[in-house]
Amino acid sequence: MVENPEKSNGYERIAPIFISGRGRNHTGVGAREVAEWSRLLPDGAAVLDLGCGPGVPISETLINRGFNVYGVDASPGMVAAFQANFPSTPIQCAAVEDSDFFGRGFDAVVAWGLFFLLDPETQRQLIAKAAAVLPRGGRLLFTAPSEVCSWPDAMTDQTSVSLGLDEYRNTLEASSLELVGTLLGDGRNHYYSAMKR
Q1: Rounded-to-integer distance, Cα 6 and Cα 76, Å
Q2: Is the dihedral of CA 71, 30, 68, 170 positive or negative?
Q3: Cα separation of 133 and 153, whole Å?
Q4: pTM
Q5: Which of 40, 77, 129, 152 has the most CB within a 10 Å radius?
Q6: Prior bond of 120 cis (ω within 30°)
Q7: DSSP string for residues in 150-196
Q8: pLDDT in tens, 18-58
Q9: How far apart are CA 123 and CA 22, in angstroms?
């Protein structure tokens, strides 16, 4: 299913724990923010959910609002759970940066709890890839701390890295994306909302 399970950044190993916790929390952290953000999208928008996990609650929120969601996750266990939850929703088991879905266009891209799991260069590449699939006015939403920092991931103990607000803004601008808003949401998640110029 995926060439290198380590591309899941340790999440394949803890998939059963994640799925039985956050993966069952239909009103969990991020659902409210994603629902609010999705009001900016056109009806029936195609949305790419990067690092979608089992799809609950982020993909679920978007699907319930009538959007055409496409999921990508590198963990075979997460992908199997997503397929069980949303059997008619397309999903690919791949490292997000290698996804075939980047060969098509989307109205929006969301990456909740993903960017900081990737190394800094992969984060920059992923922003550029997301920008490339968006039309003018297309939207990107992702989460990462506003500070430049690193820390051990609470579930996998692997190193997480935030580029910080200024570097994310610069990286977005280099890919023709404008940072149109930031917010500290539920669970103290800092999220970035960007729009393609």
Answers
A1: 11
A2: negative
A3: 29
A4: 0.91
A5: 77
A6: no
A7: EEE-TTT--EEEE--HHHHHHHHHHTTEEEEEEEE-GGG-EEEEEEE
A8: 777 654 555 577 899 999 999 999 999 999 999 999 999 99
A9: 24
